[in-house]
């Protein structure tokens, strides 16, 4: 995601039951600035109706987003805007539609690899939760991911998230469902997430640059009950991809930087037909 289109204001509630000092979103209010433009944006991406889903009380969403701490200094403001959008857009649907019981957020200094594992463990052990979805927005490369505490190879993450994880693995795998990975080269991380137990993993082929269009479009359709594949369909059209990727790629070529490797096309690994109301099978 390159640009935050609007100004948002968020009221956060500290999750006092968490060891990781993360937050849960309590209320989202839209600042009444450029109201007409906001309404147009909402209609364009979200449509006129938000479908109310069944069994949302058993679903939770975990958002982990940290970009500015380890990003290129010249892009700090952009990275911060991307982080904010990562949890503000799905939070809108939590408040205005029955999509998830709650959203948990790991950002800033809380967005470490161990905190990610520990928060997943905490959610898995909650008997009131049967389904866990994740949105991830970190700096990525083919060989790994960067959390706030450092860059980890896929093998290092496999050790932290799987081999050194003492939780009941059957329960763990039964509750994890979807991970929507907005990090660059996200497709190369998908096998790790499927090994963890996620049923579906989404990730880009290279540098991901189309989030400002794809992300709200996906969340809108997913929240209204479309499958993962159908939720991505609009943003994955070749004409739409080129509209976003081509100018950024040309900029990268002119400056000879990482942007020249843009390819925001998403690959779905695992089950592409799951929907937000799809239930996981729990074997205690």
Question: Characteristics of this structure?
Answer:
284 residues; 10 strands; alpha/beta; single chain; globular; 37% helix; 23% strand; Rossmann fold; 10-stranded mixed beta sheet
Explain what the structure shows.
The protein is of the alpha/beta class and 284 residues long. The protein has a single domain (8-270), classed as Rossmann fold, CATH 3.40.50.1460. 37% of the residues lie in helices and 23% in strands. It is built from 9 helices and 10 strands. It has helices spanning 35-46, 76-96, 113-124, 154-163, 169-175, 190-196, 211-223, 228-233, 238-255; strands spanning 8-14, 23-30, 59-66, 102-107, 131-141, 144-147, 150-153, 176-181, 200-204, 266-270. Strands 1, 2, 3, 4, 5, 6, 7, 8, 9 and 10 form a 10-stranded mixed β-sheet that branches. The protein is globular and about 55 Å long. The model is unreliable at 1-54 (pLDDT under 50).
Q: Quick one: CATH class?
A: Alpha Beta
Roughly how much helix do the residues carry, as a percent range?
Answer: 25-40%
- Compute the number of structural domains: 1
Shape: globular
Average pLDDT across residues? 79
Structural class: alpha/beta
Residue windows where pLDDT falls under 50 for at least 5 positions: 1-54
Head-to-tail CA distance between termini: 39 Å
């Amino acid at each position: 995601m390159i640009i935050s289109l609007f100004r948002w204001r968020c009221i956060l509630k500290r999750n006092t039951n968490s060891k990781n000092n993360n937050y849960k979103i309590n209320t989202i209010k839209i600042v009444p600035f450029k109201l007409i433009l906001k309404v147009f944006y909402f209609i364009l991406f979200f449509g006129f109706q938000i479908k109310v889903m069944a069994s949302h009380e058993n679903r939770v969403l975990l958002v982990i987003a940290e970009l500015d701490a380890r990003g290129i200094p010249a892009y700090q403001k952009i990275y911060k805007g991307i982080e904010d959008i990562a949890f503000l857009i799905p939070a809108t649907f939590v408040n205005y539609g029955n999509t998830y019981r709650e959203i948990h957020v790991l950002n800033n200094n809380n967005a470490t690899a161990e905190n990610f594992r520990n928060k997943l463990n905490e959610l898995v052990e909650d008997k009131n939760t049967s389904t866990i979805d994740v949105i991830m927005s970190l700096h990525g490369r083919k060989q790994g991911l960067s959390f706030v505490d450092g860059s980890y190879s896929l093998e290092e993450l496999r050790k932290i998230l799987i081999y050194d994880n003492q939780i009941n693995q059957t329960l763990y795998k039964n509750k994890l469902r979807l991970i929507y990975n907005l990090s660059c080269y996200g497709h190369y991380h998908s096998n790790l997430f499927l090994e963890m137990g996620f049923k579906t993993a989404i990730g880009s082929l290279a540098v991901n640059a189309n989030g400002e269009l794809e992300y709200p479009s996906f969340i809108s359709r997913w929240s209204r009950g479309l499958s993962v594949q159908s939720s991505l369909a609009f943003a994955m059209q070749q004409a739409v991809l080129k509209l976003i990727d081509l100018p950024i790629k040309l900029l990268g070529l002119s400056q000879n930087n990482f942007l020249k490797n843009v390819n925001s096309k998403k690959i779905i690994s695992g089950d592409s037909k799951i929907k937000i109301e799809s239930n996981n099978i729990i074997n205690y």
